[in-house]
């Protein structure tokens, strides 16, 4: 039986994951769903955010779906044992190097007058961020004291050919199922790793993906273009640091944090890691008002990318779209629905 490991975590995580559970039970009763404790909850129970046992469960599942981790009550825990450290460890151990962050504006939310923020109608970008390399992990790094007493902090941006090629391959594959266009962003004008990035992407494109159009863009220009005319993008592939920034920027043009899923994929055949991009939202936790759609859409991505059930994923996506078209709105979308009511709205549309 295919296996989904659910790690609800902290704050609103358990509330939104309960809705994923209900959707999974209705839609894919043949997928075995198990649940384990993780994040701050695990720190409180076991003194660590990610136990070896839960890590082993994650590595042997077909997909792992996270709710959210962290909260103010763990802010003073030792750095290496903070809930967020458990998330980084999970990503590294699972080897999920390609972070897929869709920035999609549903038509029903395109009129944002009730949202008190600006959205971009028709926006549909898939950002592919390299997740396990680059300046966040490169060695050497540190803070040292110089002979004159000053301090010097330093990090290293490193990418190898294979690290670049495997994430670019994910981007080209995704583009083929979309609008067939890849934009690759780096800073090849000022960074050696950027020169290599552009070279590797260019070669891979010529070799295996000549049917997809490829555009190179300097990362600062990409930031500008995302604000100026965001609908020009289809798939945007970039490194860990630029991807962190560009994906957060793009997500804000979509409506609400409560709507945005993500996937992190490793090599084929290994489990993928799925999570809403929102945090644990301590301000609304326990109130039953969080929007569960980011978590439900993360499950939709799991169906597509880890379980090979694109057809069922399409059905779920259509149900979410119809629920929104029918006016289903939680507080973050300007409405008054509870978490459970939004789950019900999706279930009703699943038929
Ligand atoms: P983290 O550091 O964990 O990423 P954060 O400080 O970025 O957390 P979030 O926890 O994501 O913040 O919450 C930011 C704001 O968005 C909060 O006001 C929160 O209530 C709201 N929010 C986040 N997720 C949801 C959701 N699913 N439904 C409704 N509101 C949400
Ligand atoms: Mg955040």
UniProtKB/TrEMBL annotation:
Recorded metabolic or biological pathway in which this protein acts: Amino-acid biosynthesis; L-leucine biosynthesis; L-leucine from 3-methyl-2-oxobutanoate: step 3/4
UniProt keyword list: Amino-acid biosynthesis, Branched-chain amino acid biosynthesis, Cytoplasm, Leucine biosynthesis, Magnesium, Manganese, Metal-binding, NAD, Oxidoreductase
Catalysed reactions, semicolon-separated: (2R,3S)-3-isopropylmalate + NAD(+) = 4-methyl-2-oxopentanoate + CO2 + NADH
Residues of the site described as Important for catalysis: 136, 187
Cofactor note as given: Binds 1 Mg(2+) or Mn(2+) ion per subunit.
EC number: 1.1.1.85
Alphabetized GO MF terms: 3-isopropylmalate dehydrogenase activity; magnesium ion binding; NAD binding
Residues that bind NAD(+): 71-84, 279-291
HAMAP family assigned: LeuB_type1
Job of this protein: Catalyzes the oxidation of 3-carboxy-2-hydroxy-4-methylpentanoate (3-isopropylmalate) to 3-carboxy-4-methyl-2-oxopentanoate. The product decarboxylates to 4-methyl-2 oxopentanoate.
Protein's UniProt name: 3-isopropylmalate dehydrogenase
Source species of the chain: Sphingomonas paeninsulae
Taxonomic lineage of the native organism: Bacteria, Pseudomonadati, Pseudomonadota, Alphaproteobacteria, Sphingomonadales
Gene: leuB
């Amino acid at each position: 039986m295919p296996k989904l490991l659910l790690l609800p975590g902290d704050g609103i995580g358990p509330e939104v994951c309960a809705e994923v559970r209900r959707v999974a039970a209705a839609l894919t009763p043949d997928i075995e769903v198990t649940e384990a404790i993780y994040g701050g909850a695990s720190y409180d129970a076991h003194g660590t955010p990610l136990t070896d046992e839960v890590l082993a469960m994650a590595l042997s599942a077909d997909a792992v779906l996270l709710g959210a981790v962290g909260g103010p009550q763990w802010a003073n825990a030792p750095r290496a044992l903070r809930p967020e450290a458990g998330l980084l460890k999970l990503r590294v151990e699972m080897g999920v190097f390609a972070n897929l962050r869709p920035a999609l504006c549903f038509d029903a939310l395109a009129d944002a007058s009730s949202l008190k923020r600006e959205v971009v109608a028709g926006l549909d970008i898939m950002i592919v961020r390299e997740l396990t390399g680059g300046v966040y992990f490169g060695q050497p790094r540190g803070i040292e004291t110089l002979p004159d007493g000053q301090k010097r902090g330093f990090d290293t941006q490193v990418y190898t050919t294979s690290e670049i090629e495997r994430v670019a391959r994910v981007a080209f594959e995704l583009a083929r199922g979309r609008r067939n266009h890849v934009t690759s962003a780096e800073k090849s004008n000022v960074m050696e790793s950027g020169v290599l990035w552009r070279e590797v992407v260019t070669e891979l494109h010529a070799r295996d993906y000549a049917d997809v159009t490829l555009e190179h863009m300097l990362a600062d220009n990409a930031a500008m273009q995302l604000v100026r005319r965001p609908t020009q993008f289809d798939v945007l592939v970039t490194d860990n640091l630029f991807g962190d920034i560009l994906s957060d920027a793009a997500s804000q043009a979509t409506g609400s944090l409560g709507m945005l899923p993500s996937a992190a994929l490793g090599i084929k055949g290994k489990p993928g890691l799925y999570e809403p991009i929102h945090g644990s939202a301590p301000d609304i936790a326990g109130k039953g008002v969080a929007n569960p759609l980011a978590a439900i859409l993360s499950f939709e991505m799991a169906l597509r990318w880890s379980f090979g059930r694109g057809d069922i994923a399409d059905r779920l996506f259509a149900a979410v779209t119809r629920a929104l078209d029918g006016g289903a709105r939680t507080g973050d979308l300007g409405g008054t629905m509870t978490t459970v009511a939004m789950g019900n709205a999706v279930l009703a549309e699943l038929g």
